[in-house]
Amino acid sequence: MVYYYIDGRAAGGERQVNSGASCEVIAGWLHLSPNDTMLLSAGVHTLKMEYLGNSSYAPSEFVAQFTVQ
Fold this sequence. Notes:
Layout: E1 2-6, E2 9-15, E3 23-26, E4 29-32, H1 34-37, E5 43-51, E6 60-68
Antiparallel strand pairs: 1-2, 1-5, 3-4, 5-6
C-alpha cells in the first residue's frame, strides 16, 4: 500500500501500488484525485508519498513540491 499526503494532511486514504487511480506522475505533470485537489489554493504545495514496505521491499518515501495554477 502507498499512502499520500498533501501539505502534511492525509489525502485519498491508502492505495494499492499498481492501482493507477490515486496519483500519477507523467513527464513532469502530477495528476491527483479531484477530491484531493478541489480545496487547494493557487500556489506551491507539498506532496509526500509513503510506502511502508513488505517482506520483499524496503519502506520508501518520496517528497516533492507542486504548483496549483
